[in-house]
From TrEMBL:
Gene: fcl
UniProt-listed SUPFAM superfamilies: NAD(P)-binding Rossmann-fold domains (SSF51735)
Site for Important for catalytic activity, residues: 110, 112
Active-site residues, Swiss-Prot/TrEMBL: 139 (proton donor/acceptor)
Sequence positions that bind NADP(+): 13-19, 108-111, 143, 166-169, 182
Alphabetically ordered keywords of this record: Isomerase, Multifunctional enzyme, NADP, Oxidoreductase
EC number: 1.1.1.271
Name assigned to this protein: GDP-L-fucose synthase
Substrates-to-products reaction catalysed: GDP-beta-L-fucose + NADP(+) = GDP-4-dehydro-alpha-D-rhamnose + NADPH + H(+)
Family label: Belongs to the NAD(P)-dependent epimerase/dehydratase family. Fucose synthase subfamily.
Top EC class, one word: oxidoreductase
Binding residue positions for substrate: 190, 205, 212, 281
Pathway: Nucleotide-sugar biosynthesis; GDP-L-fucose biosynthesis via de novo pathway; GDP-L-fucose from GDP-alpha-D-mannose: step 2/2
Pfam families given in the database record: Epimerase
Length: 324
């Protein structure tokens, strides 16, 4: 990342998986003036509080990593919370940044913004070309709104608000809730508990045939800082306009069955895998077209098995907080 290492950088969502990784990345690059706020200190869904936060601080850049996230079950059970909280957070932060004359902001979206049956791999141009996956539509709509917020402030006010769309993320500080987590932390916890209990089988939601792409959060943080650091002419030339968003991923996917087999290997589980096809599969395939980011000079470096081992070690080191 180019620029003044003394710049004041607000990392919204610094305690989450992505926000904490971005904070680590910035710190490792020598940025010393990171601004953070816990939920108790600042509720990002409250407009007046967010406006006051920006008004009373000098902020040069914003990384908007704060979001309500969850797996298929959580999205199915709490659709109102997923659309409301994400809309409020992004609207409040983006608008308050503009009011405070913050010119640079990076919004982190999600690959679920693309249509359920989008051509694979999914290019940035697939946005709004078809019907969304029903299991996470409210969350996806909120994330699409975030992209359009950034685009609108760029068009109307000449801001430099950029958006990156990560594929499925995993890594340290992930959510390991037994019901409301994403597939990798859910599987890591389930297989770990199966090893501890010497269970003969592990039941996995769905048929095992959907294909997914996974990116370690440290790679996502590196990509985010890289994109933020691109000069405006380079960014604009490679995104077709200042209104575009950029996919971030590995460009490689695997089936859920293959993922489960790799998790079993990492955790040392040797029992039987059972796939419950009565549970929803979600989108058949989600692979990102990352050629645009590749043209900008960035590619991922952490392979899936290595990333899973890192994630599992973090879980082992922090599992006390997940015993419930």
């Amino acid at each position: 990342m180019s620029g003044d290492s003394n710049q004041a950088i607000f990392v919204a969502g610094h305690r989450g998986m992505v926000g904490s990784a971005i904070a680590r990345r910035l710190t490792s690059l020598g940025y010393r003036n990171l601004i953070t706020a816990t939920h108790a200190e600042l509720d990002l869904t409250q407009q007046a509080d967010v406006e006051a936060f920006f008004r009373t601080r000098r902020i040069d850049q914003v990384y908007l990593a704060a979001a309500k996230v969850g797996g298929i079950k959580a999205n199915r059970d709490y659709p109102a919370e997923f659309i409301y909280e994400n809309l409020m957070v992004e609207a409040n932060v983006i608008h308050s940044a503009h009011q405070a004359n913050v010119d640079k902001l990076l919004f982190l979206g999600s690959s679920c913004i693309y249509p359920r049956l989008a051509e694979q791999p999914m290019a940035e141009t697939a946005l709004l070309t078809g019907t969304l996956e029903s299991t996470n539509e409210p969350y996806a709509v909120a994330k699409i709104a975030g992209i359009k917020l950034c685009e609108s402030y760029n068009r109307q006010y000449g801001r430099d608000y950029r958006s990156v769309m990560p594929t499925n993320l995993y890594g340290p500080h992930d959510n390991y809730h037994p019901e409301n987590s994403h597939v990798i932390p859910a599987l890591l916890r389930r297989f770990h508990e199966a090893v501890s209990a010497d269970a003969s089988e592990v039941v996995i939601w769905g048929s095992g045939t959907p294909m997914r792409e996974f990116l370690h959060v440290d790679d996502m943080a590196a990509a985010s800082v890289y994109v933020m650091g691109l000069d405006t002419p380079t960014y604009a030339a490679n995104t077709q306009s200042m209104l575009s968003h950029i996919n971030v991923g590995t460009g490689v996917d695997c089936t859920i069955r293959e993922l489960a087999e790799t998790v079993a290997k990492v955790t040392g589980y040797r029992g039987r895998l059972v796939f419950d096809a009565t549970k929803p599969d979600g989108t058949p395939r989600k692979l990102m077209d990352v050629s645009r980011l590749g043209a900008l000079g960035w590619t991922s470096t952490i392979g899936l098995e290595d990333g899973l081992r890192d994630s599992y070690q973090w879980f082992l080191d922090n599992q006390d907080r997940y015993r419930a």
